From TrEMBL:
<protein>
    <submittedName>
        <fullName>Alpha/beta hydrolase</fullName>
    </submittedName>
</protein>
<dbReference type="InterPro" id="IPR022742">
    <property type="entry name" value="Hydrolase_4"/>
</dbReference>
<feature type="domain" description="Serine aminopeptidase S33">
    <location>
        <begin position="48"/>
        <end position="119"/>
    </location>
</feature>
<keyword id="KW-0378">Hydrolase</keyword>
<dbReference type="GO" id="GO:0016787">
    <property type="term" value="F:hydrolase activity"/>
</dbReference>
<dbReference type="Pfam" id="PF12146">
    <property type="entry name" value="Hydrolase_4"/>
</dbReference>
<dbReference type="InterPro" id="IPR029058">
    <property type="entry name" value="AB_hydrolase_fold"/>
</dbReference>
Length: 250
């Protein structure tokens, strides 16, 4: 039976954004906004985000999970996903969390592009961002997605013969992507985050090699492994690292 505090709801100016609030047992001093990644990463991280939210709430932290416009259970189609709208939705979600939790201290957690969104949304007024394998070089990330999409098109383990280019044009791993979003991501580059940021990195991940606040995990994360595309991303070391860090902050 679902706890009443964990019931889903819609919010935002037009009620288009989906969220799920995880309330702690006592009045919280800290809130955590869980900024999701995009595309296949969002699907694969869903279970981990839920586990992390429950772990934080059990430690007295208020948590809000949400979906950007055009993703998850929010309104809009995949082709409507726009980077600037993601930033605005993040700011709206941060304010919603402050209202529900009764605290102005909000930290953002995000995996991959979820971390990037949090770092690029100063109006959300995060006191800190905790980024897991954050994307700091948008052009390199787009190139990786294009490479994976090309490999997926010719994957004989999924298709009896290669799919035509026309069948997969404008997609990244099963999700439609607009030229606008492709251009926006290609232009992204973060050298120095404007918000205090703790980077949590999988082994051999190069994204924040120059960062000064880095927690390294023991094992690599299979983000770009086509053989595990349908497998959930789970990491107990990640959950432990985040809950330990934020429990101290709370």
């Amino acid at each position: 039976m679902r706890n009443e505090a964990d019931l889903p709801f819609f919010f935002g100016p037009d009620g288009e954004l989906f969220g799920l609030y995880h309330a702690p047992a006592s009045r919280p001093r800290l809130g955590v906004l869980m900024c999701p990644p995009l595309g296949q990463d969002l699907i694969r991280c869903h279970r981990l985000y839920r586990q992390l939210a429950q772990s934080l709430a059990a430690r007295g932290v208020a948590v809000l999970r949400f979906d950007y416009h055009g993703t998850g259970d929010s309104a809009g189609e995949s082709l409507a996903v726009d980077w600037r709208r993601c930033l605005r939705d993040t700011e709206t979600a941060a304010d919603e969390l402050r209202l529900r939790a009764g605290t102005d201290r909000v930290v953002a957690f995000g995996a991959r592009l979820g971390a990037t969104v949090a770092m690029c949304a100063p109006a959300a007024r995060f006191v800190e961002v905790v980024g897991w394998d954050a994307v700091l070089d948008g052009a390199a990330h787009v190139a990786r997605l294009d490479h994976l999409q090309a490999a997926l098109r010719e994957d004989t383990g999924r298709f009896t013969r290669p799919r035509g280019h026309a069948d997969v044009a404008g997609q990244w791993l099963g999700f439609d992507v607009s030229d606008r979003l492709r251009s926006q991501l290609s232009a992204l580059r973060i050298d120095t985050p404007a918000v205090p940021t703790l980077f949590i990195e999988s082994a051999r991940s190069p994204s924040s090699a120059a960062a000064t606040r880095v927690v390294a995990l023991d094992h690599p994360t299979t983000w770009d492994d086509l053989g595990r595309l349908e497998s959930a991303i789970l990491s107990h070391p990640l959950i432990h690292a985040v809950t330990t860090h934020l429990e101290a902050a709370a």
